[in-house]
Structures are given as structure tokens and as C-alpha cells.
Specification:
alpha+beta; Aminopeptidase; 13-stranded mixed sheet; 14 helices; about 35% helix
Length: about 375
């Protein structure tokens, strides 16, 4: 029986779309369930403000009456307007190892994008760089981390077979947290602190963090413009992002630097690796998922970098060393052994160079975002 493509329009179809990957990855030991509570909010057009100012479509593929694949198509309206582009994107692309299913899904998004007069399609990437992006190209034997794709190797062959080419490469590092690394930063940190009139800010409660949420996102909007796929956060997105991640954060792993007047100059936010807790709970918060997550926040030995930024006027002045000293100092006290860099653009040689100065670094995963020209008219 041939493959059929259906646009997701009902709640039943949306539920199938959200939960289908756990069937596709049933025997994939390194795959990680998403937090389904987050996904249910993310794909709800009434709860996710991103749907208000971008265009999006969800498709399901069926074969022999069963769902066998899914894909999301996006037209990032704000991004296109800011950059003078007319791009479409595909994301949340999952299917069994079946070329016919893969082709039917990617063709459905291409046809939809062409009907909207888009001239190029890029992916995997959704609304912005804050969602999972890229197909995994190296590190299939490694365990997945939160908010990253852990796709099958066949996805690379299938996408290239549809005339897609490499567009953006991303890398991910794992670095040991040691006293030697901390001391290296401390020595530099002392010199920086003497030369600049700055104040360091540390936290012991989530309540104390909340007044800094808006300044953090404002600084992100100033500094992330060179990152591919980044779109300035709206007030609604800031609120949604904070509501999503604040409950998962240990305030002792949030570090900030201000000037003498309290203006935010730099920050770094890390979180405990919750992947084992999420995996053991199969992405469900209830009945025991939340308890497992809380336990992992206290006992995990692996740290995951989440966000960080330095004000443009204060870059290259050593504030990164001050932040690293604070973060690694707290991490060692809390028992963390390693830190995951999250995704970094492969051509960000400056950031990669800083990481590769650290003893024991391991570039353990790579990802690729692909592109293809579309035919309009």
C-alpha cells in the first residue's frame, strides 16, 4: 500500500504526532524522550506564541493504516523579515527506515513551502535555534541530551538523496571539571576583576533569580544576532522560556556580572543533566517523573550549559573567565565531574578554541543543518 500524507488538524492527530517518535525509536537505546508536557504546550497553537507570528504546518505519514512518520514545516516570518529572506524550514522530522515515507514527508513540506512562495528550505530547524536542530552526523553511540536531536544515520543518506546540501555544521563538546581547570581560570579572573569595575552576582533561590529574567533575555537579544537561526525574543517568548526552564534550574548554577550600577553585563546558566531521569520516566512527569527529575538535579554528575552571553562592549575583556571561575567553583562543590557544551557552530573558532585549551576536552558529537533551493511558480 502506498504512503499517504495527512495534515494534522485534530487533537487526536496532534497526540499521534507528539508521541510517534517513541515508537520509531523503541529499540534505539541512546534516544531520549522529550518532556511530553513541554511538547504538548509547544505544539498547542493557543499556548505557544511562536505560532502567532510564524507560519507552520504539521504532517503525518501513514502506511497500511498506521502512522509511520511525521514532519513540521515552518516559515519563520520574523527571521525572514529581519534578514531579507524568503526561507522555509523543516523540523521534528521522524520516520522509520523507509525511503518512500521519508520522501513523501519532505516532499509534502517542500510543496507547502513552494505554495507560500518560499525560495529555499532549511532544516532540521524549527522556529529558532532554541529548538532541536540538525541531523546527528557523529556520535550515534553516545547518549542523547535534552533539547538535541538524536536521529538515525539513514536520515543523512535520505536527505542527501533529495538534493539537499550541507549548510550549517554544529559540534558538541564534553569537558572534565577539575581543580586544575578552575585554578587556570582563577588566576586570570583575579587580573580581570582588578581592571574592571564589576560586581559578581550569585544565587541561592529561584525567587532571587526572577528579577534578572528580563535583563537576561534583553542581553540575549543584543548578542545572539550572529547565531544562525536566532530571532529576537518577544515578551511572550521570554515568559514561556522562563516558565519552561526555571523549575529545572539549580540557582547555584546561574552566574551573573553587573556593572557598578547593576546593569547586566554577562551571565551563564547551566543545569544538571536530567537525561537519565527523563529516559527512565519515558518523558512523563506523572506519576514519578517529577520526583526522578528532582533527584537528578541533586545527584547528577554531568553539567549541561544552557545559555550565556556577554555585552558587546565587554567582550574580549575576560568576563568569560570570571563566569567560568564562578560556575566551575560551584559545580565542583556540588559534585559535578563533566560539563557538556551544548551545540556550537562549527565555524565559531573563537569559542571552540577556548574549549580546546581545556585539558581533556572531547568533541563527541556533530550535527548538520541542510538546505535546498525551491522552485516557485
Amino acid at each position: 500500500m502506498s504512503v499517504s500524507i495527512k495534515e494534522v488538524k485534530t487533537r487526536e492527530d496532534l497526540k499521534t504526532f507528539i508521541y510517534l517518535p517513541e515508537k520509531i525509536h523503541k529499540n534505539h537505546k541512546n534516544w531520549l524522550h522529550p518532556l511530553y508536557m513541554d511538547d504538548e504546550k509547544f505544539f498547542d497553537k493557543d499556548k505557544n506564541s511562536l505560532f502567532k507570528h510564524n507560519k507552520a504546518v504539521l504532517f503525518l505519514a501513514h502506511e497500511n493504516g498506521k502512522a509511520v512518520g511525521r514532519i513540521m514545516g515552518v516559515i519563520p516570518t520574523d527571521y525572514n523579515k529581519f534578514h531579507g529572506k524568503n526561507d522555509a524550514r523543516f523540523s521534528f522530522f521522524e520516520c522509520f527506515e523507509n525511503k518512500e515515507v521519508f520522501n513523501a514527508l519532505i516532499n509534502a513540506v517542500e510543496t507547502w513551502a513552494e505554495s507560500k512562495n518560499c525560495t529555499e528550505i532549511i532544516g532540521p530547524m524549527a522556529f529558532s535555534d532554541k529548538e532541536p536542530q540538525g541531523f546527528l552526523t557523529k556520535g550515534f553511540e553516545e547518549k542523547a541530551m535534552l533539547v538535541t536531536n538524536h536521529s538515525f544515520p539513514f536520515m543523512i543518506d535520505f536527505i542527501k538523496g533529495n538534493q539537499y546540501e550541507n549548510f550549517v555544521d554544529l559540534v558538541q563538546y564534553d569537558v572534565p571539571i577539575t581543580a586544575q581547570i578552575l585554578n587556570r581560570y582563577k588566576n586570570f579572573n583575579e587580573r580581570v576583576s582588578k581592571n574592571l569595575k564589576i560586581k559578581t552576582v550569585e544565587f541561592t533561590s529561584t525567587k532571587a533569580v526572577k528579577p534578572y529574567v528580563k535583563p537576561v533575555f534583553d542581553l540575549i537579544n543584543k548578542t545572539y544576532t550572529e547565531i544562525y537561526g536566532f530571532t529576537k525574543l518577544t515578551e511572550d517568548e521570554m515568559t514561556e522560556f522562563a516558565e519552561r526552564f526555571l523549575p529545572l534550574l539549580n540557582p547555584k548554577l546561574i552566574k551573573m556580572i553587573t556593572d557598578e550600577n547593576g546593569e547586566l553585563l554577562a551571565f551563564i546558566i547551566a543545569m544538571a543533566d536530567l537525561s537519565e531521569a527523563i529516559k527512565n520516566s519515558r518523558g512523563r512527569i506523572l506519576p514519578f517523573g517529577w520526583a526522578r527529575i528532582l533527584w537528578a538535579m541533586k545527584t547528577s554528575k554531568r553539567l549541561q550549559l544552557l545559555l550565556g552571553a556577554i555585552h558587546p562592549k565587554y567582550q574580549n575583556k575576560g568576563l568569560d573567565a570570571v563566569l567560568a571561575t564562578m560556575l566551575f567553583g560551584s559545580a565542583l562543590k556540588l559534585g559535578f565531574k563533566t560539563v557538556d557544551s551544548h551545540l556550537i557552530m562549527k565555524d565559531n573558532l573563537k569559542m571552540r578554541g577556548e574549549i580546546e585549551k581545556l585539558e581533556g576536552f572531547n568533541l563527541y558529537k556533530e550535527y548538520c543543518i541542510f538546505r535546498k533551493n525551491l522552485v516557485v511558480g
